[in-house]
Amino acid sequence: MQISVYRNNMPVETFESTPGTLQSFKIVPVSGSNTVIKLAIPLIDIHSFWYSNCNEFHVQLVWRLNFTCALNHNMPYLAFFNLARQLRCAVATDNLTDDTNFSGAMNQQECTFDITLDCSAEKPFNLIIDRRGDISFTESVAQWRKSVMPENLYFPSAAWEPVFCTWYAVHGEVTAKWIERQAIKARALGFGTLIVDDGWCYDEAKRVNPQTIVNWYNTIGDWNISETKFPDFKEHVKKIQSTGLKYLLWIAPHLIGTDSKFYAEHPDWTLPDTPHEGYRRLDVAKHPAVDYLAEKFVSLAVDNGLDGLKIDFLNIVRPDAASPIGNNNKLLLEKVCNKLREKNPDALIEFRQAYATIGMLPYATQFRVGDVPFDWALNFRRMVDIRISLGDGIPIHADPAYWGPEEYPENVARHMMIMLLGVPMLSMDLNTLPAEHLSIVQYYLALYKAKQQLLNSGHWNILFSSGNAGVAMAEDENEVLAIIMDDTLLDKVIQAANGRKLTLLNISAETLHFDGKTAAPGETIC
Fold first, then answer.
1. pLDDT for 467 beyond 80
2. Is the pTM here over 0.90, yes or no?
3. CA 120 → CA 4, 104, 148, distances in Å?
4. Secondary structure (DSSP) of 356-408
5. Per-residue pLDDT averaged across 264-270, rounded?
C-alpha cells in the first residue's frame, strides 16, 4: 500500500506500508503549507470502522467518512476492522494538538477506501499505519494511546465520587434554595460532588423546551452571579460544602450571547457567523479575549471558594486544517485550567465527551458523556466510546441519569447500572423522586461504593456482538463485574470470569441465569 505526501498540491514523498506490520513514518512539514497525506486501504475483510466520538460500533461501511481533530475535538486515529473486530488497518498520527482533517471515500473501481489527511502542523510528526491482523482494533487503540500518553497525570480522589448535577432536574430555574434542599439528601445517598449547571449567571427562570432553546444563550458571556437566584453566593457555597459536597460551577468560554455586555463591548472578539441559539462563538485567535475570560473564570472560582469548574462547549469551534484553532485553544486551556490548579492542586475540572481526548488529559480531572437525557442505552455506548479512547484509570463520568416520574423501575435500574462503567451522575429532584425510584438509586450508588476499587482501578474489557457493544466488563485478579446489553454473550462472560467472583448487571431485554440465580431485565446477580 503506497502512502503519498503532498505540499502545495505537489507530491513530495512516498512510503510503502507492508501488510501485517505496525509502521511509523516521519513527516516533516514546511512552514506556511499544509501537509496532505493520501493512501488507499484495500477493502479486504473490512466490515466496520471506529474513531473517537463516533459512539456507534455497528457493522457498516459508509460511502464517505469525514471528521476533524485537534486538541479540543476528537483524536487523530481511525481504525478499520472485520466482523470479529480484528484490525485490518489503522491510520493515526502522534500530533494531538494541531488541526487535522480526516476524509475518506469508497472507491468502487479500485476496491479500496481512499483516505486523505490534511494536517496544519508546522513541526515534524509521525504517521502511524497499523496493519497487524492478529489483534483487535481496541488493542491497536490501546497501544497507540500508550505511545502518545502524557506523563505525570493527576486525578484527585474526589474525581471518582458520584456527582449530583442540577441541569436536567431544573435547568435555568436553579436557585440557592433549590440546591440547598437537594444537598443534604444527595450527600446522604453517597454523592460527593455538586455541579451547578447553566442558570446561575442570569436572573431569568426558564426550562429547556423547543421554544426556549431557540434563544437560550442570548445573555451568556458576562459570567456574573445572579443575585436574584443567589442572594449571598459565598455563604451558599460554604453551606453546601459543609455537607461534605464539592461545589462546581458550569462555564462555557466559547459562548458569547448577543445580548450580553461582553458582546456589546467586544463584538470583534467573536467569529462573524450567524448567531445560533442566541450566541456567537468566541474567536480564540483574539488573545486579549482569551486573557480576559481566563482571568474572569479563575477569579470566579478562587474568590468564591469553589472546588472547580465544569467547562462546557470547548469543541463549539471545530478544528479545520484550513483555519487551525488547536494551538489557540491550548492557550485558553493553559490560562484557565493550569492557573486554577496552581491555586488548588485538587481542583475538579469536568470536560465533555467531544473533547475527552488524550491531549486533554493534563487539563481536566474528569470526562463526561455528551448529553443523552432519557437514553440509558446511548449513555452506555458513549461511555464505552470514551473507555476505548482514554483507557483504564481515567475518571469517566456518565451523563446525568434523567427519566420521567412514571418510568418503569427496570429502566430506572438500567440508568443506574450503566453508570458503573464510569462514575455515576444523577440529575433528578431528590425531594420528588418516587420512593421506588429512590430505592433503586440508593442500591446502585451503594453497589458502586462497594465495588469502587474494581471499577476505578480494574481493567475494562469490551465484548462486542455483531451489531454493537454487548458487554462492558471490569476485572481484576479476584473479581469480575459485567454490564450485559447482549444476553447471548453471557457464556463468554462466564468463561472470561474463569471462577472469579462474578457480578452481573442485566440491561438486556432477556432474563439471565447464572449459578442457580436469575436476573430479569433491570436486575442484578451478585
1. no
2. yes
3. 17, 18, 19
4. --GGGTTT-SEEEPPP-TT-HHHHHHHHHHHHHHH-TTS-EEPPPB---TT--
5. 97
Distance CA 368, CA 341 (A): 19
User: Look-up: residue for cell 458576562?
Assistant: 222
pLDDT (tens digit, 9 = 90+) per residue, 50-102? 999 887 778 899 999 999 999 999 999 999 999 999 999 999 999 999 999 99
Q: How far is 496 from 489, CA to CA, in rounded Å?
A: 11
Find residue 79's DSSP bridge partners.
Answer: 50, 90
* Separation of alpha carbons 49 and 374, rounded Å: 27
Q: Is the pLDDT of residue 441 over 80?
A: yes
The rounded distance, in Å, linking the Cα atoms of 147 and 134 is: 19
Q: Are 53 and 379 in contact (CB under 8 A)?
A: no
pLDDT in tens, 378-416: 999 999 999 999 999 999 999 999 999 999 999 999 999
3-class DSSP state of 262 = helix
Contacts by residues 365-368 (CB-CB < 8 Å, ≥ 24 positions apart): 365/154, 365/155, 365/156, 365/159, 365/308, 365/395, 366/155, 366/159, 366/395, 366/396, 366/397, 366/423, 367/394, 367/395, 367/396, 367/397, 368/396, 368/397, 368/398, 368/399, 368/425
Amino acid at 52: S
CA distance 395 to 371: 17
Torsion of CA 400, 71, 27, 147, to 10 degrees: -50
H or E stretch covering 38:
strand 35-42
**Chain centroid to CA 218: how far?**
26
Beta-carbon count within 10 A of 276 CB: 14
